[in-house]
Amino acid sequence: MFDTLEPTSSEVYEYAVEPISRGRLHALTLGVLDLWCAMSGGRFELSSTGQVVVRERESGVEVLRFPEENPEQLAATLDVVRDQLATCDPDEFRVAWGVGD
Fold first, then answer.
1. Where are the beta strands (DSSP E) in 1-101?
2. Angle in degrees, 0-180, between the axes of helices 71-87 and 90-97, rounded to the nearest 10
3. 45, 30 contact by CB (below 8 A)
4. How far is it, in rounded angstroms, from Cα 26 to Cα 76?
5. Mean pLDDT of the chain
6. What percent of the chain has pLDDT over 70?
7. DSSP string, 60-88
8. CB of 50 closer than 8 Å to CB of 37
9. CA dist 38 → 25, 32, 41, 42, 73 (Å)
10. pTM for the complete prediction?
């Protein structure tokens, strides 16, 4: 008689962009290289990489992690994940990304 609304994936999962964990020396080296490239007119952006992380809202359990070494690729991955969370139901999202395999 009554139809129940199925939740979207964005109601079940949440996403975030997190920095890639690196040691201090590695992070300092990347920062110096970025500064050198910026001063010489180039664009390197080694220190601005990150990871797209998807977690269950209720439990906080991590289900997906995408480390990206390139800022443009990070943005593209974030757009795809954000779009699929908004448009797919949870089962479709799990199948598309292999969650729980």
1. 13-19, 50-56, 62-68
2. 140
3. no
4. 25
5. 80
6. 76
7. --EEEEEEESSHHHHHHHHHHHHHHHHHS
8. no
9. 20, 10, 5, 5, 20
10. 0.68
